[in-house]
Specification:
Layout lengths: L1 H20 L6 H14 L1 H8 L5 H8 L4 E2 H21 L3 H21 L2 E2 L10
Parallel strand pairs: 1-2
Helix pairs in contact: 1-2, 2-3, 5-6
Organism: Duganella radicis
Protein name: DUF454 family protein
InterPro entries: DUF454
Amino acid sequence: MKIILNFIGIVAVILGVLGIFLPLLPTTPFLLLASACFARASPRMHNWLRTNRVFGKYLRDYENGAGIPLRGKVWILIFMWGSMSYSIWRTDHLWVRLLIVAIGACVTLYLTRFVPTMRTPPAPADGE
């Protein structure tokens, strides 16, 4: 089972990194999947993912229950709905359009209602 989980985790990391550069490929779900797989199969790979300088902080915050910063949520929703709008515009099938909208609505609901929004501490006043 560890071999399968490690394989899925590696593929998910590759897809997540590609998602940074390809607008229609999501990044966050793949990195969360990779983190879950590595947590069960390879502590070394899980530690590498959590300490990665590019996305480690976001994974640690999410896994520790701190949530996602408001700015991050806004960007996620902008890019997600932008790519989904493009997909809706490009298809001629009503059922595909409805499915895309339903998926987008569910992800939006999950992100806004069930994922905590990270609170940032107030900036220090001048002179402190």
